[in-house]
Amino acid sequence: MSQAGVEQHGQHRQPREQWTGQVGFILAAIGSAVGLGNIWRFPGVAYENGGGAFLIPYLVALITAGIPILFLDYAVGHRFRGSAPTAFRRLGGPRGRSLEALGWFQVAICFVISLYYTVVIAWALSYFVFSFDLRWGDDTAGFLVGDYLQASDPGFSLSFVPSVLIPLVLIWVAVIVVLALGVARGVQRVNVIFLPLLVVAFAALVVRALFLDGAAEGLNALFTPDFAALADPNVWIAAYSQIFFSLSIAFGIMITYASYRRRRSNLTTPGLVVAFANSSFEILAGIGVFATLGFFAFQQGVAVGELEGLTGVGLSFITFPAIVSQMPGGPIFGILFFGSLAMAGFTSLLSVLQVVSAGFQEKFGLSPRQAAVRVGVVAAVLSILLFSTTTGLLALDTVDNWANNIGIVLSAILASVFAFWVLRKGPELRYHLNSVSTFRVGGIWTVLAGILAPVILGYMLISRIVSLIVDGYAGYPQWYLLALGWGAIAVIVAGAGLLTVLRWRQNPDDFRAWPPLPDHTPPHHAAAPTKGGRR
What we know:
Layout: H1 3-7, H2 22-33, H3 36-40, H4 42-48, H5 55-80, H6 84-92, H7 96-130, H8 140-148, H9 162-180, H10 183-210, H11 215-223, H12 233-246, H13 253-259, H14 268-300, H15 312-326, H16 330-364, H17 368-387, H18 392-422, H19 426-436, H20 443-471, H21 478-501
Helix pairs in contact: 2-10, 2-13, 2-14, 2-16, 4-14, 5-6, 5-12, 5-13, 5-14, 5-19, 5-20, 6-7, 7-9, 7-16, 7-17, 7-18, 7-21, 9-10, 9-16, 9-17, 10-14, 10-16, 11-14, 14-15, 15-16, 16-17, 18-20, 18-21
């Protein structure tokens, strides 16, 4: 069957949306990968796990797990031309329905993540405005928890915080509008605009930070290697964890994004560009953050290691505002930092919600506009009810921990095990990558994505579950962790099951993968494409 015939196979099926070209796809994929975690998570994780020595396990993790799983997502999405539920169903063949549930599991994870991820962007937008007059004052921790978030004890509250509610509503409106415009006119266009702006803004921030008093001490604290840390298995787990969460892999994003590429599209070379661009931004973020922390430590007359709040919410919304208040030209620095945080978060949020929108479009025959409005409105209401209240901060912290450390890791393990061991589709996926790409993958890709990655991720998952059961989390009451943490996982599983049994508007199995496997080559030997496979 010709390429055009394959694209149109199936009666009354609308032509699939596409990126305008390779550059648009690369920018969108980088925009998804570069998010909040690059700025507020990587520098602290690197510092706490061997400093400069951490770059060794970090690069090993990138090459042995990050890129192989990224290629797996690309291969599944591009070959089977659909959102996560559609692509996994087609990958599963006769077992399609059971594997479709994995796709909906990933969609449900993205839906849950979108509910709280949007709130952090709302905080960044608020602090962008606060930077103009340094509204947080001298007590940045008290301002965040008390004045701004009005945080209360663990529980459930309907006491809304207007300073969070208003920017949250604005962001949800913007997200729905962008998704309604579609892949090329909406998601891609925003990334084409925001990603260069993000790089320029953050580069300016880094340059300014490098000329602050104490910047050299901050960089020494980050990059001075502690090679003894390499003997600690937890350091290696931290590296794999950082790569895994940073690249937007294994929860439907890259499957969905790859499905919007044209049939004859290079996959592996752009994948390398995306992976190394993401890591480059993380290192740039580390330089900027720790040069700034060096200045703060210099001002306080203490060592960098004695500072508190070096990662996450504490770094971005307590430590950095305190630094901005003390530095020359602080308001400009704050504007650049929180503007960068908001842009990085927004492009990542679009990718998360596009997974949900695409799944509903294909299952229920909706247009991008219909799916964006229906999914967006429901998500916005839940997001506002759960996270714009006085209990929003603790709810966000809890749900985020379970969704990432349990949900996404489990999703990656299942995807790898099903693809390589249950369905034995590794050779077919490898054949597909090599048929359309200039950088070819060999048998080592199967070993890395099919054996090494799930083993490491399995260890991460088991150790995390044991820790959460035995030690709890952050000192929160057990009933609260059960309701918000394990409850979030239960909702994800239930949602995946319900969406799997609902009827498709159009038969997703009316489809033929392209390029076809060579007739003379058994599937288990299909790893080396012939020249004809590049038609």
